[in-house]
Amino acid sequence: MTGAILPGAANAADYVALSGRQLYERFCASCHGVQGRGDGPVADSLRVEVPDLTRIAQRRGAALPRDRIARIIDGRHVLKAHGSRTMPVWGEDLSRAHAGDPDAERNTEIIISRLAEYVWFLQRPGDQDVPLAAQAPDAPAGVDQWIHAALELDRNAERGALLYEQHCADCHGGQAWGDAARSIPALAGQRRAYLVKQLADFIELERRGDQEALRGERQGRDQGRSMHEVVSSAGLDDPQVWADIAAYVNGLPLAQSTQTGDGTGLALGEAVYREQCATCHEEDARGDDEGFVPSLRNQHYVYLLRQMRGLTAWHRSNADEGLIRFLDSLETEEMTAVADYLSRFRGPVRDRLRMHNDGTVGD
Hints:
This protein is mostly helical. The protein folds into 3 domains: 12-123, Cytochrome Bc1 Complex, Chain D, domain 2, CATH 1.10.760; 140-250, Orthogonal Bundle (Cytochrome Bc1 Complex, Chain D, domain 2), CATH 1.10.760; 266-342, Cytochrome c-like domain (Cytochrome Bc1 Complex, Chain D, domain 2). The protein is 50% helix and 0% strand. The chain is built from 18 helices and no strands. The protein has helices spanning 12-18, 21-27, 29-32, 53-60, 66-74, 90-97, 104-123, 140-152, 157-167, 169-172, 192-208, 211-219, 227-231, 239-250, 266-281, 301-312, 321-329, 332-342. The radius of gyration is 24 Å and the shape is elongated.
């Protein structure tokens, strides 16, 4: 996470502004100071006075001028303080990060927007003295605030498509149908609230440096990049990004086919699921937005089974303890049967439910 849930961050717009905080801490605070007032630890060593960014924003009555930031980043403005056309680190890091990147211009625009809004946040009455280094609470409520903020934001599925292609498609596939051979889940049509929560939880693990949980996530994969490696990429530490990606993935056509088991334990799987799982996931496995319960429909058998086994090993740090204890109580035969039964729930959610002769579930 980019940082703490700060006092004054009372609405979704504030959370978007605060998503620029990590950028500011990394690139700006050493010269401009933690509050943007030009009093950073190296300011006195420069040949010119470092400007107070909050005063610039106040004079405009809006966020820090984005055109000014853009000129500094792309080298159209010579800085007398060090005789170069790019801010120290800023230009170099951006150039390296975007070398050969077809989305470089769009990514730079996002960076500029987040940084500008954060400086505006700093200068507002009552916000100037908020300590930049304040730590986020360890309680889950801190993460939950970011999740709910992301769900309240206006979402842009077109931007989500670009972000998905850049960060997710290599593993989950261009249509988000997953890859059974690598135990990678299908995401197409998954509940938006659950997708946002998963992104937020993975990023929170990375921010906290929860090595035990991260090791579990690494062990829970077979091939390819682990999720913690993906979410640590630049630009994903942002509730707006979560909202956009989730909106895009939620609207994708469902997988046309998913891997199933051998079909020998379907009656047992149905009995266990209806008795133990349907209360939360619903009888048709549609899930529930209010409780961030995922849909289990249109999913690969091998992934479902791997997750059930992984949860019993406590490798999913955001899983409900009661769920973990229940799965740990299952015999191998029961767990396999439930995964096979669920892998046959295909198509969109329907009001009526029956098992077809071919083993699929639906109308």
